[in-house]
Each structure stands twice: as C-alpha cells, then as structure tokens.
Design a protein that fits this description.
Elements lengths: L3 E5 L6 H12 L2 E4 H9 L3 H8 L1 H15 L5 E4 L8 H9 L1 E7 L2 H8 L6 H4 L3 H11 L9 E4 L5 H12 L1
Parallel strand pairs: 1-3, 1-4, 2-3, 4-5
Helix pairs in contact: 1-9, 2-4, 3-4, 6-8
Bound molecules: shikimate-3-phosphate.
Shikimate-3-phosphate binds next to α1 and α7.
Pfam families: SKI
Keywords: Amino-acid biosynthesis, Aromatic amino acid biosynthesis, ATP-binding, Cytoplasm, Kinase, Magnesium, Metal-binding, Nucleotide-binding, Transferase
Pathway: Metabolic intermediate biosynthesis; chorismate biosynthesis; chorismate from D-erythrose 4-phosphate and phosphoenolpyruvate: step 5/7
C-alpha cells in the first residue's frame, strides 16, 4: 500500500502549490484539506471561522483527517493548524509520511499578504500575527520526518529534495 504523503507547515510555506506538483510527479491524487472542507461544508474557510468559529473548523478538519487516513496514494496539503492537534498527528502517521515545509517569516509575509483566505492572519497587523503564531507554534511542526525550506530553494529543487527523500 502506498503511504500517503502529508505536507505540514505554517501558512504560506507552499504546501498547496508544491503538493499539487508532487502528486502529479508521483502519480498520486492530491487533496488540499482547506479546499476539501470548503467542498464538504459548502462554505469558505473564512465563512466557517466567522460564522461557526474556529472550533467548528477544527472539528471538520479532524473528521477529514480521519477519512483521508483510510485512503492510500494521496498527497495531502494540510492546513497550517492541522498538526497542532496530537490526535491528528497520530492518525496521519498511521499510513502517512509527514513532510514539513518551512520558510522565513519575511518570505511568509510576502506570500500571504495579498491572500484573504487566512482568518488567523487577517485581524490586526499581518507581520505581528505571523511572528506571534510562528512563536506559539514553534515545535509543533517538528513531528515531521523530513523538513525542507521553501524560501531558500527554488520550486524544482524543493520537489527534487522531497522526491529524493521518499525514494
Ligand atoms: C490555518 C491555516 C490555513 C487554514 C486556516 C487555519 C492555521 O491553511 O487551514 O485558515 O491555523 O494555520 P493554510 O496553511 O493552507 O493557509
């Protein structure tokens, strides 16, 4: 059985765009958990946070993690908060390889500044939110087996490193 490849990491580290390419290269199916939650609920991530609250979003995320872990041959781009929940980590690990994408806060800032899909960054000062959350989450992404910095290396080199690691 082909283990799933689970991309974890902070917002703006490139999980979705890299994941899509990685899946194509490996002949795996690609799932972006945020998009899947939007499809399942019929609401945007932003609407769920605003109308139903973060707790509701996290429970949708958790249900989805359980569903996906019963499948194989997937590349999964998780949301930046998915692995803050230890149970999600345990479930994802059962049949998945966890790979963490990182980037410096300056890089993250540039990447997320024009995107509106991230309610945790959109209230107040963007830079302060990034620095605070990175600080709060320091350690949470260390559950990965392999980590690669997507700010330092070019897109193709990052893909190459991940594929090399998986072989
Ligand atoms: C979140 C990250 C987002 C999305 C939600 C919460 C987080 O996903 O799941 O806004 O807690 O870091 P991306 O990492 O794909 O932006």
């Amino acid at each position: 059985m082909k283990k799933n490849i689970i991309l974890i990491g902070f917002m703006g580290t490139g999980k979705s765009s890299l994941g899509r390419h990685l899946a194509r290269r490996l002949g795996y199916k690609f799932v972006d958990t945020d998009s899947a939650i939007e499809e399942i609920t019929g609401k945007t991530v932003e609407q769920i946070f605003r109308k139903d609250g973060e707790i509701r979003f996290r429970s949708e995320e958790k249900l989805l993690v359980r569903k996906l872990s019963r499948r194989a041959g997937l590349v999964v781009a998780t949301g930046g908060g998915t692995v803050l929940d230890r149970e999600n980590v345990e479930i994802l690990r059962q049949n998945g390889v966890l790979i963490c994408l990182t980037a410096a806060p300056e890089v993250i800032f540039q990447r997320v500044k024009n995107k509106k899909r991230r309610p945790l960054l959109s209230r107040g000062d963007l830079w302060e939110n990034i620095v605070r959350l990175l600080h709060e989450r320091a350690g949470a992404y260390e559950v990965a087996e392999f980590t690669v910095d997507t700010g330092e290396l070019g897109f193709d080199e990052v893909l190459h490193q991940i594929i090399n690691y998986l072989q």
